[in-house]
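Most newcomers find our protein records easier to grasp once they have seen one. To make this concrete, we reproduce a full record directly below:

…
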Amino acid sequence: MTATFEDPNVSPWERKEWIKKQRLQLLEQRVNIKAQAFDLEKQQFKWSRYCSKKDKEFERSRLLNERTTLEIRQSALQLRQKQLEMDKIFEFKSVVIFCKSLGYTCLILFANEGFLH
């Protein structure tokens, strides 16, 4: 670069042309850098959108999993409740059979406890 300016054989017009050429090269470099920056921004935007979509899918799956777990627990509790009810009914029937042998004196006691509806 300094050789062009220091060379006494180079005319002022050639110097101006050389400067124009250098300016044009720098302008092209700037445009290329801006194009690369734009491409990177575009990539980042696409990646952000993709991540956001995947985060929503993950959250949806997590909530569905939690809901399923709660439904399973609810079913287990309902089953346990039914088992307890069946145990009470079996117990009640056993007591009724026993009370029949005693002349129904125990039946009134259980009616007050809510076994008879």
Observations:
- The helical segments are 2-6, 12-102, 107-112.
- The chain has three helices and no strands.
